[in-house]
Design brief:
Blueprint lengths: L1 E9 L5 H9 L8 E6 L2 E8 L8 H15 L5 E2 L5 E2 L2 H10 L1 H11 L2 E9 L2 H11 L2 H4 L12 H34 L5 E6 L5 E10 L3 H14 L4 E8 L11
Antiparallel strand pairs: 1-3, 1-4, 1-5, 2-3, 6-8, 6-9, 7-8
Helix pairs in contact: 5-7, 7-8
């Protein structure tokens, strides 16, 4: 049967504790878990029939639960859902061929948690506030003295200028938020990734990789920035295994 790979970890994790977890935990469809080693690394795997493998939501949840179980106790790299190889020999060869890159990534995430942050707003309310603070309205073209007929062209130009100005104001506001987050996160020595303006209402989508012992510091920091921005809603999630910080191209 083929091998479904859940996570990779350093070979040092060969311990009685790992053996105990392996014997007590279950993979998808209640399958048994075991370890394949190679290149100074361990892969947590279970047997799977690839032709019968169904990548539905319930299976994905079971897969994630296995990763969570081991992440609680060991530094690891979670594998992408559905990572299947043909045989134990193929898994071992993969570990050996990619050992330096995998070890480097394990060093990066060792002892760390991943957190996610979404900053949500009512875009129409935020745009109105930003526009009110700007001097754009005072600069829009107005009818000259004695002009009684509204210029369709002038109205069109003003509308387009207002739309463009609103985009600029929103982007500048988001950049200011990200700068504040980055400056504050500097004290946590975190690794950060940001996406801007994901939707009209989700203006920041961020992920952080921080030391496990700094979890409370991160929560307090986000709460402080939330208090400074009462018109925004901050959703902090985690801790998660470092799904977003695995940078390995398997050869």
């Amino acid at each position: 049967m083929e091998k479904l790979i859940y996570a990779l970890m350093s070979d040092y994790a060969k311990s009685g504790h790992l053996a105990s977890l392996i014997s007590s935990a279950k993979g998808i469809s209640d399958s048994s878990l075991y370890v394949i080693s190679g290149g100074g690394l361990n892969a947590i795997v279970s047997d799977v029939n690839k032709s019968e493998f169904v990548a539905d939501k319930s299976v994905a949840i079971d897969y994630a639960n296995v990763i969570e179980t081991f992440f609680t106790h060991f530094s690891l790299l979670p594998m992408r859902f559905g990572s299947i190889m043909e045989s134990p020999e193929a898994v071992k060869a993969m570990l050996e061929n990619n050992s330096p890159e995998i070890q480097q990534n394990l060093g990066k995430v060792a002892g760390k948690f991943e957190f996610g942050l979404k900053i949500i707003c009512d875009s129409e309310i935020l745009k109105a506030k930003l526009l009110a603070k700007s001097d754009f309205l005072s600069k829009t073209e107005k009818p000259s003295d004695g002009q009684t007929t509204t210029s369709v062209f002038r109205d069109y130009v003003n509308k387009k200028l207002a739309e463009h100005r609103l985009e600029e104001l929103m982007l500048a506001h988001v950049e200011t938020l990200i700068a504040a987050l980055t400056a504050s996160l500097g004290s946590l020595n975190s690794i950060n990734k940001f996406r801007k303006m994901l939707t009209d209402n989700t203006i920041v989508d961020a992920i952080f990789l921080i030391d496990k012992e700094k979890k409370s510091d991160l929560i307090d920091l986000i709460a402080e920035i939330q208090n400074d921005n009462p018109g925004l809603t901050f959703f902090l999630t985690g801790p998660w295994p470092p799904y977003s910080f695995v940078d390995v191209t398997i050869k």
